[in-house]
Amino acid sequence: MNHTNQPASDTDSTPYNDVSMSCGCCGYSLKPSYEQAFNLVKLQPLNCDQCSSQLQLAEADRLVLDEKLQRAARMGKLAVLILGPYFLLGIVASIYFGFFVPAPFPGFSGVLVVVGIILGFVIKSASEDDIEYSFVLLTHIEQPTTLGAVTTNN
Ligand SMILES: [Zn+2]
Hints:
It is a single chain. The protein has one domain (19-140). Helix 1 (34-41) crosses helix 2 and helix 2 (59-100) runs antiparallel to helix 3 (108-126). A hairpin with a 6-residue loop joins strand 3 (46-47) and strand 4 (54-55). The two termini are 45 Å apart. The chain has 3 helices and 5 strands, in the order E-E-H-E-E-H-H-E. By secondary structure, it is mostly helical. It has helices at 34-41, 59-100, 108-126, and strands at 19-23, 29-30, 46-47, 54-55, 133-137. Helix content is 45%, strand content 10%. The protein is rod-shaped, with a radius of gyration of 23 Å. The strands form 2 sheets. A 3-stranded mixed sheet has the order 2-1-5, with no helix packed on it. Bound molecules: zinc ion.
């Protein structure tokens, strides 16, 4: 039985361009995908494309990236909540004023569309910030839980 359990999410391989990351070992500029950015937040290391080092975010950077991703997700949900009903109402209003009663003023449906675009733009800009994030990924993370647990040096 070969059941492919591949997630259908299209965010998996989408490049995450909001931040720049570089390898703390060789200095290579990494282009993480959304999935890799989420993985870094979840403490799953990323492999450097150039030197194959296992890379992780420093804890302070991890919290910054976590906050940034969560804010984007919140604003995405907000955009759906606001813009979805807005465009449904816009379509209903356009049909209503087009077929049953005269529009309140010429170009009424055009104004609806323009306002919708402005709303989308405002929400999009609110979900982003102007700070340029540049993370240097670490090749070794101190993990207090493993202290003294494993000793491989002979
Ligand atoms: Zn590297």
